[in-house]
């Protein structure tokens, strides 16, 4: 694709900002979550949404998918869900006498993996190839997934009965982990006002597509072209190395985590009309991009230390390039 002109970038950026405005028609008080989804889409990444039931995790994703005009499918992850229920399976066709591949729900633009930690590791792992390689292998053939492709998975942080903790390898495939909290009082009043006015979360009344798939792909390409200086690259590496030596950390940020942070920072910089990534962009994206990648020492966890607190300390102690 040819490089876009500044004017093209401006129009694409305006289109992406319209997505946030459109989602606001259905979701109140979750602007940070919506922005995180947008950044992940621009960076060609995936998102893990963590929050207690009832804070609109599913509604945010469904509204976002409607606003960006992309196909979406929802899978409710349960203990008896099989890998083929997600990726697809071979089905015997009695008319032809042959087996044919029947695509699973993963063959969509935005896959909502609801309560992903409620299904066994075997089924969780079925998503690994799809998330990393953007393809599904079955019967000796690789089938490419639609482009754009984003997995938005949800999990409940407080209910652990009947759940399966996501392995580190899978957590690492999520570009960002967004913590969906309770809305402020005014936002919660606005939610009730929406419902009192007849808003239907099931029908998503009032939310419509404001961008096209072509515009999204063009915006992704534009975000990838944002410049990064060697000083900023060194800053990202210094932050990663600082997590590895932090006393409360057993496993720090890997080189893959550093590339993920860089991709998120470039997308955030582009959204803010910056031609180059700055340390501020890196710091803004640090916590959502790395909070799920750090493995804390057991004694630190028992003392109440959190990954967010460790990352805040790392930022404070790492020299910022001028």
Q: Tags for this entry?
A:
disordered N terminus; alpha/beta; 322 residues; 15% strand
Describe what this molecule looks like in 3D:
By secondary structure, this protein is α/β, with parallel strands linked by helices. The chain is built from 13 helices and eleven strands. The strands form four sheets. It has a five-stranded parallel sheet. A two-stranded antiparallel ribbon has the order 3-4. Strand 3 and strand 4 form a beta hairpin. Helix 10 packs across helix 11 and helix 11 (279-290) packs antiparallel against helix 13.
Topology:
Elements: H1 6-23, H2 31-42, E1 47-50, H3 57-68, E2 72-76, H4 83-87, E3 88-93, E4 98-103, E5 110-114, H5 121-133, E6 135-138, E7 141-144, E8 150-155, H6 168-171, E9 176-179, H7 185-196, H8 213-224, H9 230-245, E10 249-251, H10 255-271, H11 279-290, E11 295-296, H12 298-302, H13 307-317
Parallel strand pairs: 1-8, 1-9, 2-5, 5-8
Antiparallel strand pairs: 3-4, 6-7, 10-11
